[in-house]
Amino acid sequence: MLNHILTGEYLGLTGARINGAEMLACGLATHFVPSTCLASLERELWKTNSVNPAVASAVLDVFAQEVSTREESAYRRLDIINKCFSKNTVEEILSTLQQAVKGDEWILTAINSMKSASPTSLKISLKSIREGRNQDVSQCLIREFRMACHAFRGTVNGDAFEGARTVSLDKNKKPKVALGDLPMLFSLFASCLTIITSIFYLVDH
Description:
11 helices, globular, mainly alpha
């Protein structure tokens, strides 16, 4: 079976949305229950009056259905996701995606999404995702909260405010930031991580 672990990078860097079938495909879900059955499922779960996960799973098994991803779904190309998003840097990921396009619409969408995002945010997100693999959920949530706080305080730059402004006010998704020039931002990114990591350490100790 293909390794699904690198879908975190794909979702985190492209902002791609996934449906129920895709959540099953990448391991984010254990069961697929149609919305028409949710009320019945809820009633049966209440009847069990149990907090035992095995009991809940048995009830879910009764209502769960097998479902396949759509033909155009990126999750039918997990080998490409793993190949491209296993690279060490955002620049390398973009470069590998561009080499793999071959008319695949989902790859073009991924490339365009990354190119329209803040380079600083992409780099921070990539590092956060990979550090999170060695942490529990509590640690990840704390880190994400602190990252968000620093982003909206403008600790490094005003990309977060500018992105929010273009989506909420201008509604044109055309932020006035230097997009696409990832190599030039490497030093800024390194400084950003140093600042944020230092603050995280001071707060925790």
